[in-house]
Amino acid sequence: MPGPDGAGETAPGRKARGGMSGNLERRYRRVLRRVPLVLPGWCRQQSERGMVAAFPESSLAGSAEADEYASQDAGTDRTQTACVAGMAAWVHGGVRVAPPRRDPWFSRPARLRAAAGLAAAGMLLAAGGCSSPSSAGSRPSTPASSAGLPDCLTASRCYAPRQFRVAYGIQPLLDHGIDGRGQTVVLLEYAATTPASPPTVTDIRQDLADFDSRFGLPPARIQVINSLAHSASPWLADGEEVGDTEMVHAVAPDATIRELMIDATTPAKFAAMYSRAVRTAAGDGDVIVLTREFGENLFTRAGPAIINSALEYAAARHATVVAGSGDGGAIATRSRSSAPVRQVSLPASDPLVLAVGGTTLTANRATGAYISETAWNDPQLKIGGTGGQSSSASAGGFSHLFARPAYQDGVPGIGAMRGVPDVAGEAGSHTDMAFAFAASGGAYELVSMGGTSASGPFWAGLIALADQDAGHPLGFVNPAIYQIARSPLYHKAFHDITTGNNTVTFNGVTITGYQAGPGWDPVTGWGSPDAQVLIPLLARDAQANG
């Protein structure tokens, strides 16, 4: 699972550290210098559609309007003028674009999207426009055709949302009106740290418009909260954010989704920012989810305490907090400054979090009928940085920080410390749900994302369904999850994952993990849901056992 990141561009006419190769930059300049006459028309079109929120050297930069653009239109004439000036400076000044500020092992989809967006810049301008997002108050236009682009459905490497929902028993709930209506899911997402020129970024509203139009989903109710990160481009989304959002929307199509933008690059900063974000989100939503993490061994003593205090605050306000367990198998996360150790990660290891591991799903690709699942473990999917490379698998094991909570008492396989994860969901990079991502030329491609970056938001969407079914937020659901799993209804409410492990390799050295088995295990928890059984049980039992 990716860690904290930022991505961005420098202001027009300014030279950034790093930047593109000389050949690539010269190629962009040649393309862009052919089209100066289209700038006013293009900017007018994008201004009308709400795309040109702010250019760094425009009169909007750093103003209240720039920050406010996440929720309303700025003045069209002023924005258009700033756009023309900014784009002209970009074309004639030869702005250099800095590479994303992220460690090498972070989100592959995000890296691919960043590269695709840069490559598309010249083509979009040369065409005199693109399929661009509307203002925050209206639905974006339909994106350009994606003919010839990668399509994981055609390649049988993913499932359409409906097939995915059928496999996990979600579709019958939707058919009976349990679709997340009236519920709010808050996604904690890392914000870009600098503004980016409109042709080189993807607006998440347009990503969702494409996703919805392809798969017959209702328009997403999406909002961005920018009060913590103060991003200059709050609608700018990387692959992680897009995948999180599309997963929640597919599972709970009528739920409101709030993107709470955060920014933290170290464990210490993460603890402080996560605490603030959870406290903010607890007042804005019913379910809170984060798909980034740090290994427990990377925190000082204060960090986990700060995080736990915020989680207690959320629980007291009946908010459910969900987190993916991570993609590093038995070592959870990799650090450039320390050797790999068997451990789990925060925030998933905190007992107040519903920790979600990963599986690999096999279902009928035509109907979605569930066939089987195994623990997610992909030796070929390498994640690495300057400290080395490791393979990927469902993270799980036992906390070094938190004692076994009461709801885990008496569970076979769990000793004195908190066991992770609690539950699991599809995380295979070739068997996940299809996600729509931006590609070159304003078109879109369908890809399978994978990792617990997918299974965490999946469970967040499920909790939104349970909240609606109950008629109130369920809040801290872990005790109810464990009570159902230890009842005679376990094998009706869950798919018990009994095969696979989370052994991984790091720099060619094997780190022996844990084995999936009957009942709870430190790879997939209690397993994946059969939602048509589990959700009504949660709706009935969670509050009484919370």
Mean pLDDT: 74
CA radius of gyration is 23 Å
Helical fraction: 25-40%
Q: What's the main sheet like?
A: 8 strands, mixed
First-to-last CA distance: 29 Å
Low-confidence stretches: 1-148, 195-200
The tally of helices reads 15
Note the overall shape.
globular
Explain the overall architecture.
With 546 residues, this protein is an alpha/beta fold. Helix content is 33%, strand content 18%. Strands 1, 2, 3, 4, 6, 8, 9 and 14 form an eight-stranded mixed sheet that branches. A two-stranded antiparallel sheet has the order 5-7.
Structural descriptors:
20 strands, single chain, globular, 546 residues, alpha/beta, two-stranded antiparallel ribbon, eight-stranded mixed β-sheet, disordered N terminus
Summarize the structure.
Helices cover about 35% and strands about 20% of the residues.
Q: In terms of topology, how is this protein built?
A:
Blueprint: H1 22-32, H2 39-49, H3 64-68, H4 76-93, H5 108-126, H6 161-167, H7 171-175, E1 184-190, H8 204-215, E2 221-225, H9 239-251, E3 256-262, H10 267-282, E4 287-290, E5 294-295, H11 302-316, E6 320-324, E7 345-346, E8 354-363, E9 370-375, E10 377-385, E11 388-393, E12 397-403, E13 417-420, E14 423-426, E15 434-438, E16 444-448, H12 452-470, H13 478-485, H14 490-493, E17 494-495, E18 504-506, E19 509-511, E20 528-529, H15 531-545
Parallel strand pairs: 1-3, 1-4, 2-3, 4-6, 6-8, 8-14
Antiparallel strand pairs: 5-7, 8-9, 10-11, 12-13, 15-16, 17-20, 18-19
Helix pairs in contact: 1-5, 2-4, 8-9, 9-12, 10-11, 12-15, 13-15
